[in-house]
Write a structure and sequence with these properties.
The chain has 192 residues and is mainly beta. It has two domains: 2-83, Immunoglobulin-like, CATH 2.60.40.10; 86-189, Immunoglobulin-like, CATH 2.60.40. It contains no helices and 16 strands. The strands form four sheets. Strands 1, 2, 4, 7 and 8 form a five-stranded mixed beta sheet that branches. Strands 11, 12, 14, 15 and 16 form a five-stranded antiparallel beta sheet that branches. 21% of the residues are buried.
Amino acid sequence: MATVPPAVTRLEYLVRIQATGGKQPFKWSIFAGSLPPGLSLDETTGVISGTPTQVGEFHFTVEVNDSDKPPNRRDREMTIKVNAPLMLEWSKFPEVDADSISGSVKVSNSTADIFDQTIIILAVNEYGKAFTLGYQHFDLQPSDEKVEISFGLSLPRGTYTIHADAIAEVDAKNEIFRNRLQTPRPLQVTAP
């Protein structure tokens, strides 16, 4: 199975699949599986292009036929991984320790641009009052692999839902990327 370069949602993608030998012109097609939504294969050039709209790993088989009589046929299984421009994940899931909630997130930049990055982690209690567990503002380079940001704070008794929000700005292109995490169920602080 061949892996082609990864793609990023909302950003233009262009990759040319190569064939050697055989009699030109070639005719390209998807034999099995499917390309990521938003991408297409040009049957005369072997170029996969477009703007992917969905994150995931997509497996497909490309078939190429040459112009010989009868045509020679080859196929190859391929994979394209599509990432979000701004990745955000729990590194250490939020947990309660006595009267505090702590944890960490990881953030990464899947684009070729430098992000003006802001991360805010809040604990929102059952009454809607928010407490800031963590805040970071920094330049996130494309080469930075999963920057880890720790958070934690002592809180009054209550039930808290944790929200981690990441906002990345690319001023030169007037683009903003967002990602968000939230605990699936509230955490209970019972001390002191």
